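Lab notes, practical 5.
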Amino acid sequence: MGLTTTEAPFIEVAREQGALYIQQPYELYSDSNHLAWAHLYERMHDRWLTYANQHFLKGIESLCLDPTRVPRLSDVNRFLEPLTHFSAKPVSGYVPAFKFFDCLRNREFPTTITVRRLDQLDYLPEPDIFHDIAGHVPMHTDPAFADALVRFGDCAHTAAELAASISDEQERMRRLTSIIRAMARFFWFTVEFGLMNSQNGLKVYGSGLLSSYGEIKHCIESPQVQRFPIQLEWVINQSFEIDHYQPLLFYVEGFDHLFELVDQLEKWMREGKLDNVAPGEPGVNAADLASFAEHS
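Output from the prediction step:
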C-alpha cells in the first residue's frame, strides 16, 4: 500500500499514538505512489502554464520538483527556506484550526505525506501531498504571499486573546465559533480558491484550483462560475460546499492587496464585526473550537 491516502498503516499508527507532527518515511513510498505523482504532475503542467499566476510558475521552478517522484520534504525545504523562511512540516492528518494558523505564524506549513490512489486521481477524500506541495507550497516562495499567511496566523492569536476577555463561557464559545467560521471562509476564498487579476486576465493562485486538473480550467473559462472583486463583508458571510466545483469565486489585485485584506480581517475581529457572521457552512467542529479555547 505504501503511503496511499486512507490506506497507509504508518499514518494509522501515528494517529493511534496521538502523533500529529511526524517524519516523512520516504522509503515507504511504493512504485504506485510515485506513478500517481508523475501522472498528476504531467497532466497539470500545461494547465499551470495556461491558468496559473506568474508567482506560482516562478515558485514551481524555484522548488526544482521532480516530475516523476514524490518529493522529499527535506529537498523542498532546502529550496524554500532561503526564499521566505517557510518550510513544509509533515503531519499525520487533520490539524486543528488554531494549531494550523499558529504554524503559518511560525512560517511552517502542515503538509500531508500520503498520495491519492493511482486509479482515483480525480477523487480526493482528504488533502494529499500533491495538493499540499504542488498546490500550496509554490506560493510560499513568494515573499508577499508568505507574509500574508504569517499575518493570517496572527489573526488566530488575536481571536484567542479576545475570547480570553469574555467571562461567560457560552458567549465565549458562540463568538469563537463565529470568528472561526469567518476565518475559514476567508481562507477558502483566498488561499484555497482565490483568483488574481493580471494584465492577461484572471489567473489562479488558490491551491485547491492549482491542484485540480478539471477545476483549474473550469474556474477561468466556464460561464457557470461567478467571479467578483473580493469584498471582505461578502466573503466572511458566504458559505461554501467542498464536494463540487465552486460556482462563486473572488479575485484580488495582488498579494499586497491580500495582505491588506488580512489586516482588515483582524481589525474587524477586534471591532466585533466577526462575532455574528451568517450561519451555514463550514461547520466548526469541536476540535477546532477547543484548539482556540485552550489558548484563550
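Observations recorded by the TA: The mean pLDDT is 95. The first strand starts at residue 87 and ends at 91.
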